[in-house]
Write a structure and sequence with these properties.
Blueprint (H helix, E strand, L loop, with lengths): L3 E8 L3 H12 L4 E5 L13 H6 L9 E5 L6 E3 L31 H14 L28 H12 L5 E2 L37 H7 L3 E4 L1 E9 L2 E9 L5 E11 L5 H8 L15 E8 L14 E3 L7 H4 L4 E6 L4 H7 L5 H7 L3 E8 L8 E8 L5 E7 L3 H20 L4 E6 L33 E3 L14 H18 L1
Parallel strand pairs: 1-2, 1-9, 2-6, 3-15, 9-17
Antiparallel strand pairs: 3-4, 5-11, 7-8, 8-9, 10-13, 10-16, 11-12, 12-13, 14-15
Helix pairs in contact: 1-5, 1-11, 3-11, 4-10, 8-9
The chain binds flavin-adenine dinucleotide (FAD) and iron/sulfur cluster.
The site of iron/sulfur cluster has 12 residues, from loops.
Length: 495
């Protein structure tokens, strides 16, 4: 097969892929970025909850087969796929891990700290130093100041402080202040939706635009199928055009895999890589939502309020369980059709009517890296002739303990805020998937070395969330972004 040649080919355009591609192209490397999704449309329908959450406008062509919660069979789920990956759907929360979270890592918080600072700059994070009671050291300034709390967030702030807690404003990668770009309209459809006006600082709206202007070839609808290796090097990347279904190849001096923590290990397995830990130690946090029904409308103006975070309980169980507990964050309440859709039979109408009286808090707790939680390949194939990705996952008792601990604390805040009836909703998505190609100091302990290079390959690096050896207790994207900048720097140093 005739293959165009690049200095570097990057696979996947999420935080991990886009930031590496951006750095390589800025350093003068001829770089191509392969992304299986298309550009988000950024029209009215992108803010329509039915279109995005129920009809799944950006649903991937290939399902994931998921077996979880002790079930015996695999169920099909369809992730979203667009240029920019999950950054397009993320809620903007941009928090650093804390020094103790690095206990099982081959690098320390101090190693990553300068890259965190650069990632915060590139992502235009709005935050307030000195307000997080467990703030990591060396955080001296955020690029932008925070904005005032909206009414629903104020309610939570007052309840939290009345309980003696220290709620602080979530550092957000959302453009509230740079007038050279579209400003945030503070709408209710942020977390889980593409931003129609491109005020969310996702990869497609920010980094990829700069990288493309600097010469990055972004090839969309390109499904990477196989990495072709010879003598310990990846020589070519084979991909399928998702529209024409034709197969193409690119040859490269260097390949960076960033297809996300579910797809990157699957691509390695399909390509014949045989490290025994490929796909193992899948983590996704142990998340739940505390919901309360209030005797008044909680957000009549339907304004953005993912603004507050509580880290007060972060270290409460470290001595006993060896991990962080996690954080509690404000989160929006979906529209009545979405709540009705997810409500149990018999309650759908009632719950739909009560939607306007609900307020929620999201609990993000650390989960244990367990060898049996894994990604593997099915014998069933997708429309591109690729084996489907299989995911097997179970939470440990400690995971559930941490989550339930946070849920109880979140419920206390909601009750203090005036909530009456409470309900818990457990999150079963893989939106925080990480860990399936962990980095380590020896090949026995991990798939990647400390620079995130595959141990047995001279020129294959991984820069998405797969590299993380533990999940810590905060949302993962800033850590993925910071590490991608670190990996890019290591690659360039070696050249
Ligand atoms: C609704 C939602 C809200 C979230 N909110 C937050 C938040 O507020 N804060 C936070 O820190 N984190 C949040 N997250 C998590 C965060 O978005 C992810 O952890 C992060 O985006 C993962 O980045 P990544 O680069 O590892 O992978 P991804 O974003 O998954 O990128 C992988 C890319 O590779 C592409 N790809 C996959 N397979 C192939 C292939 N074979 N060929 C070519 N391309 C391929 C995919 O289409 C995708 O674009 C949220 C996630 C979701 C879904
Ligand atoms: S809240 Fe702001 S950044 Fe988020 S989708 Fe709405 S306008 Fe965009």
């Amino acid at each position: 097969m005739n293959a165009a040649h690049y200095d570097a080919v990057v696979i996947g355009s999420g935080f991990g892929g886009s930031l590496v591609a951006h750095a390589l192209v800025q350093a003068g490397l001829k770089t191509a970025l392969l992304e299986r999704g298309q550009w988000a449309k950024r029209d009215d329908a992108d803010w329509d909850q039915r279109t995005i959450l129920l009809q799944k406008r950006y649903r991937a062509a290939s399902p994931l087969l998921v077996k979880q919660y002790g079930r015996r069979t695999f169920q099909r789920t369809y992730p979203n796929e667009v240029v920019g990956g999950n950054s397009v759907f993320f809620g903007g929360a941009s928090l650093r891990l804390r020094p103790a979270d690095f206990a099982r890592w081959p690098l320390s918080y101090a190693d990553l700290a300068p890259y965190y600072a650069r990632a915060e700059q590139l992502l235009g994070v709005h935050g307030e130093v000195g307000t997080d009671p467990h703030e990591p050291p060396g955080l001296t300034a955020y690029p932008h100041a925070t904005v005032e709390l909206s009414a629903p967030a104020q309610r939570i702030y007052q309840a939290g402080t009345a309980l003696g807690l220290q709620p602080f404003k979530i550092p957000l990668a959302i453009n509230f202040s740079d007038r050279t770009r579209p400003l945030c309209l503070r709408c209710i459809t942020c977390d889980g939706f593409p931003c129609k006006v491109e005020a969310k600082n996702d990869m497609a709206s920010t980094v990829l635009a700069t990288a493309s202007a600097a010469g990055l070839d972004i090839i969309v609808g390109a499904v990477a199928k196989r990495l072709m290796q010879r003598d310990g090097r990846v020589e070519q990347v084979e991909y399928v055009d998702s529209t024409s279904r034709q197969t193409h190849a690119l040859s490269a001096d260097l390949v960076v895999l960033a297809a996300g923590a579910l797809n990157s290990p699957a691509l390695m397995l399909r390509s014949g890589f045989d490290h025994p830990l490929i796909g193992r130690f899948l983590m996704r946090h142990c998340n739940g939502i505390a919901n309360c029904i209030f005797p008044f409308r909680t957000n009549p103006q339907q304004v953005f309020h993912k603004q507050l975070c509580f880290s007060d309980f972060y270290e409460d169980l470290r001595a006993e369980l060896g991990t962080a507990v996690g954080v509690i964050q404000d989160i929006y309440t979906p529209a009545p059709p979405i709540i009705r859709h997810h409500a149990p039979w018999g309650f759908k109408t009632l719950v739909g009517l009560l939607t306007g009286y609900m307020q929620n808090l999201l609990c993000i707790s650390e989960d244990d890296p367990r060898r049996d939680n894994r990604v593997s390949l099915s014998s069933e194939q997708d429309i591109f002739g690729m084996e489907l990705v299989q995911v097997e996952h179970a939470y440990s008792d400690a995971d559930c303990r941490r989550r339930d601990y946070l849920l109880a604390k979140a419920e206390a805040v909601l009750r203090q805020a005036g909530g009456l009836l409470r309900y818990r909703y457990l999150i079963d998505s893989f939106s925080h998937a990480i860990g399936t190609l962990r980095c380590a100091t020896t090949p026995e302990e991990g798939v990647l070395d400390v620079d995130c290079r595959y141990w047995d390959s001279e020129n294959l690096y991984v820069s998405d969330g797969s590299f993380m050896p533990s999940s810590g207790g905060v949302n993962p994207s800033l850590t993925i972004a910071a590490n991608a900048l670190r990996v890019a720097e290591r690659i360039l140093e070696k050249r």
